[in-house]
TrEMBL record:
Source taxonomy: Eukaryota, Fungi, Dikarya, Ascomycota, Pezizomycotina
Organism: Aspergillus coremiiformis
GO CC list: microtubule organizing center; MWP complex
Record GO biological process: microtubule anchoring at mitotic spindle pole body
Protein name according to UniProt: WD40-repeat-containing domain protein
Taxonomic superkingdom: Eukaryota
């Protein structure tokens, strides 16, 4: 990943940013502040870079866990990994914390583990996973991980038990391991053809595993200690002779008033979404990405170029003609590619690859109903909900115009131009800041070469993007920040 050595990396919720220049690692420790104070530069031992990762914002394990053990929670950290060495820095105050040498070349993934005191390394060819404990200097090995990416493993929210898919031979295995000890809690041989991934529910009560699409609809739900609780194979009366299988799954967030995740969305290759209630894991409704005109039709908004200045805007469409144009021919992989719940579980945004330029927004409050459809000129890349209010940001693969689209339940959606560098690939990334208060919530927009931080402001019935700060790649610290 030579490109990683010249890229900008943001922490999970945008509170920190890092970039490299030769052996310099440039850390923006408070990029949301006025004027980009707290920029630090440290020297890495090598120019080559494969992975640059921040530890996560919230501890996988509650800080109370450390208090009961008479310890202090670790601070935020960043790791810089080459093909043979891992360096870990403490951020506040900035100092080198640990170094892991003699890493075998060809690592597929290197990241933090259950907390900032662990580094996990997936070795070449997925032969094994090594867990390094930075506080004790010990390491542990788990053999034959099936995947090195995030769908192949996960840490249980709050308590940190580790779940991982293994493929030691012909059969898929799910194993659950203890927090920090990695002692085996349970081991399940999976009745799958080719398991595609696992995901913990945000409340930590369940682990779901989904099978390859060619096996038809098959989602296995396990308890937190690895006991099979339910096998989902489709809704009642489902004709499995036409079953094209599962593309992916998504848990709803924890409902603030009840403290549990209430829904599991299963995106299918045929373009439908089964919504399961987590009490029984039975299908409560199936969402279909087909449109029929009737008196209860949802609001349809079509993206178009404004005649006056050539910018984009949404115009309301009153007929299914809005769906007549497909941005690109549908190509593999087919099915539902995006499923995103709003913070309150009330809304679900989906994208089906049959029409990859449309975002469908569903209200799941009582009976699931389609409330809006946003039709774009180009395929949709992201649909990202605000962490604490009902606002959706959308990016598309529009290489001509850097822009973000904003939808709320009230009023007309808007297309906001971003004064950022144009991307020839259209791979723009948008990310809300986690600590967003007030009306003008901040978010990052950009690519690995150029990130802009700002917020949407409204004046005279029009919305525009207010730039707060910018990070540009391959620049000295003094010139990489602007207001």
């Amino acid at each position: 990943m030579d490109s990683a050595s010249t890229s900008i990396t943001l922490s999970e919720h945008g509170e920190y940013a890092a970039q490299t220049s030769a052996k310099d690692l440039i850390l923006h420790l408070n990029p949301t502040s006025s004027g980009f104070q707290d920029v630090e530069i440290v020297k890495a031992k090598e120019c080559s870079l494969k992975f640059l990762k921040f530890s996560r914002e919230s501890y996988t394990v509650s800080p109370d866990t450390y208090t009961t053990r008479g310890e202090s929670p670790p601070g935020r950290r960043v790791l810089h990994a080459s093909d043979s060495r891992v360096l870990v820095w403490q951020l506040l105050p900035l100092q080198l914390h640990a170094e892991i040498e003699s890493i075998e070349p060809g690592a597929l993934n290197i990241d933090f583990g259950s907390d900032e005191n662990e580094v996990i390394v997936f070795h070449a060819w997925n032969t094994r996973l090594t867990v390094y404990a930075l506080d004790t200097g010990r390491s542990q090995v788990i053999k034959s991980p099936k995947f090195a990416h995030h769908n192949g493993f996960g840490y249980r929210p709050k308590t940190g038990q580790f779940a991982i898919l293994l493929k030691p031979d012909a059969a898929d295995l799910l194993t659950i391991h203890g927090f920090r000890s990695y002692e085996l809690i349970n081991r399940a041989v999976l009745p799958t053809v080719d398991a595609q991934g696992l995901k913990w529910s945000p409340d930590g009560r369940w682990v779901a595993v989904w099978d390859t699409a060619s096996a038809g609809t098959k989602v296995l739900v396990f308890t937190a200690d690895g006991q099979l609780f339910r096998t989902y194979a489709g809704p009642p009366g489902f004709d499995d002779s036409l079953d094209l299988g599962v593309r992916g799954i998504e848990w709803s967030p924890v409902a603030s008033d009840r403290g549990i995740s209430e829904h599991l969305a299963i995106g299918k290759v045929d373009g439908t979404v089964d919504i399961l209630r987590c009490k029984t894991f039975s299908c409560s409704t199936t969402l279909s990405h087909s449109f029929e005109i009737d008196e209860n039709s949802p609001s349809i908004w079509r993206e178009r170029y404004a005649t006056a200045d050539g910018t984009l805007e949404y115009a309301e469409s009153s007929s299914s003609s809005a769906f007549s144009i497909i941005a690109e021919s549908s190509s593999p992989p087919r099915g539902v590619s995006i499923m995103a719940f709003s913070f309150s579980e009330r809304f679900l945004a989906t994208v089906d690859q049959t029409r990859p330029n449309i975002v469908w927004i569903w209200n799941l409050e009582s009976t699931a109903v389609l409330v809006s459809a946003l039709v774009h000129e180009h395929p949709v890349r992201q649909a990202v909900w605000h962490p604490s209010k009902v606002q959706l940001l959308i990016t598309t693969a529009n290489i001509a115009l850097p822009a973000v689209r904003s939808w709320t339940p009230d009023g007309q959606p808007s297309v906001i131009h971003i004064p950022a560098s144009r991307s020839d690939s259209g791979r723009y990334d948008v990310r809300w800041l986690s600590s967003n208060e007030g009306d003008n919530s901040k978010f990052w927009f950009g690519t690995t070469e150029d990130y802009t931080l700002g917020c949407i402001e409204s004046a005279d019935a029009a919305s525009h993007f207010k730039v707060l700060n910018t990070i540009k790649n391959k620049a000295s610290p003094g010139s990489s920040m602007s207001r």
